[in-house]
Here is the input.
Amino acid sequence: MIRLSGVCHQIGQSQILQDISAEIPRGKLTALIGPNGAGKSMLLRLIGRLEPIQTGTISVDDLDVAQTPSARLATHMAVLGQQTAIASRLRLAELVGFGRWPHHQGRPRPQDRQAVDAALNAFDLSSLAERFLDEVSGGQAQRAYLAMTFAQDTDWLLLDEPLNNLDMSHARALMARLSQSVRDSGKSVVVVVHEVNYAAAWANHIVALKNGRISAIGAPSEVLTSAGLSALYDTEIEVTEFRGRTLVLHH
Ligand SMILES: Nc1ncnc2c1ncn2[C@@H]1O[C@H](COP(=O)(O)OP(=O)(O)OP(=O)(O)O)[C@@H](O)[C@H]1O
Ligand SMILES: [Mg+2]
Here is the structure.
């Protein structure tokens, strides 16, 4: 489990996160939701050690994030940030290959190449493997970043807005793949999503952030209510059911 205890984060005079204490369970698909600027990316960055922890403690299973070397953490947890600034003159296969680094430290073995091929294939990118990143579409680049993260083959996957740029079919395929990784491979996933319907359809646990604080946490049926979501986003939102499935209406 990921355990956050008394986590605060400040930039200049701005309090970005305030006294976050929570547990994110292992073996579940957790959706992190909340309005723009709520602190979702910052929280993920702190868990993933992309940002130093100022106050409080964060542990992932038995690893204290502040004390664990990055190389050790990278074999246990993969983090895909919201902004990716990787050189565009990189072939997709090379990008996905970065995901294997924590396993081979610069000396790829046959199983690393196999893992890269499998990840490219899983994300529908085999035919684009030799293209440069700046020669593919936005959604294809996003899938390449996701393939890199999957190739890392860690117990935990933390993904910040992985659905960005994906069409409906690839978005659904990603959520199904994440759900399957949780169900069949014992992985644990934390995913930031803006389209709450994806959370309703696929998540088994929800964390809602607003103004740097946790405003709700629990099962989808508890958190994804008309009143709860309307207050979270300051917008009228209706939660209903269609053919036995939760449907969030916001337009
Ligand atoms: N480097 C920075 N300097 C100053 N403020 C920052 C910095 N990075 C983030 N912030 C602020 O921290 C707050 C939380 O940002 P964060 O990126 O975590 O939001 P978010 O919930 O991920 O939003 P979004 O849905 O738009 O991605 C915002 O108010 C943002 O303006
Ligand atoms: Mg963000």
About this structure: The first strand starts at residue 2 and ends at 11. The mean pLDDT is 95.
